[in-house]
């Protein structure tokens, strides 16, 4: 018997899950280390309905990984962690599938840091930490960009001079682990008719949509970075690049200020001035909260039309992510008046968050996504090979 650990590292948090390896890896525990980089990092482990917590004091990613090992070891009956799977935001043009990580691959991934400066360094810090805490384990990288490598050139490029494309300024697309999971689920649910033409709306704190045909990504709303497309909790989504020129020339803003604005102060938070959390906005009586939701829904509907056009029609629409899975209001408002596209939903099924909520020609599904499960299966496959 052996175990698989999955790691999903952000700037100040490290989410993890522990699986028992087997034909289908079995989830045994989940947890999170919060406040990494502060003096008061905090570890949570949830298993078999119980929650354990530990105060770690000052902790970087390396200390966080050691603490995860410490808290999990007593529950593993002496069996080893044979593989560690890492969510890595950027695989550039190098990876269209998971890869067993070594020093050469790590340095190639390090060269992609400028393409994802807020995520990639933390992902790689977790890989280094895991390599030292689990020196005998196979380390597997699973890339959020990999699922989209199948996109045709027209959705891979911008209309910049070609030399920029050659330099890597392309539309990579993200949330690929979630789309991979959803595609697998659609196959499992309905193998005959499965996902001929599907749009998936992954609506979490980060949000994107993807048009999938025959199981392959054709177009997505996120592009070069995780800023494009839909408005998100605190990110702007689609923005006329002329706005940036104006902010630089007229407002005197520099690189760091603009980065902070676009990643942390826009989206639902910026529009509402209240919160980045959809639950709070739905509960708020204020006009600004309503307008933020109006804009959010409007952009999803607009992208839905464009993505369906990119794949020549639509058989299935899937909602996933914290908002997609839980907000009946957002789902209802996205689908409202979309009968012309074959989209109609049953209010009761929608309110209940049923697996299928549609009454029209397009099957509308709510699927709980599972990015960790995708990582665990990739590690299991690497171990079997
Ligand atoms: P992340 O991208 O960080 O994994 P999640 O997928 O957990 O984020 O999504 C977080 C979002 O889901 C938040 O905006 C939160 O308000 C929203 N959310 C969670 N539950 C509900 C709910 N019951 N109703 C509306 N929104 C919800």
From TrEMBL:
EC number: 2.7.2.1
Binding site for ATP: 15, 202-206, 277-279, 322-326
Localization per record: Cytoplasm
Cofactor-binding details, from the entry: Mg(2+). Can also accept Mn(2+).
Binding site for substrate: 87
Cofactor: Mg(2+); Mn(2+)
Signal sequence, start to end: none
Keyword entries, A-Z: ATP-binding, Cytoplasm, Kinase, Magnesium, Metal-binding, Nucleotide-binding, Transferase
Pfam families recorded: Acetate_kinase
Statement: the UniProt record of this protein carries the keyword Nucleotide-binding: yes
Binding site for Mg(2+): 8, 371
Domain of life: Bacteria
EC category: transferase
GO molecular function term, any single one: acetate kinase activity
GO cellular component: cytosol
InterPro entries, per the entry: Ac/propionate_kinase, Aliphatic_acid_kin_short-chain, Aliphatic_acid_kinase_CS, ATPase_NBD
Residues the UniProt record annotates as site (Transition state stabilizer): 175, 235
Quaternary structure, from the entry: Homodimer.
Family note: Belongs to the acetokinase family.
HAMAP family to which the protein is assigned, alphabetical: Acetate_kinase
Listed name of the protein: Acetate kinase
Species: Mangrovicoccus algicola
Lineage: Bacteria, Pseudomonadati, Pseudomonadota, Alphaproteobacteria, Rhodobacterales
Recorded name of the encoding gene: ackA
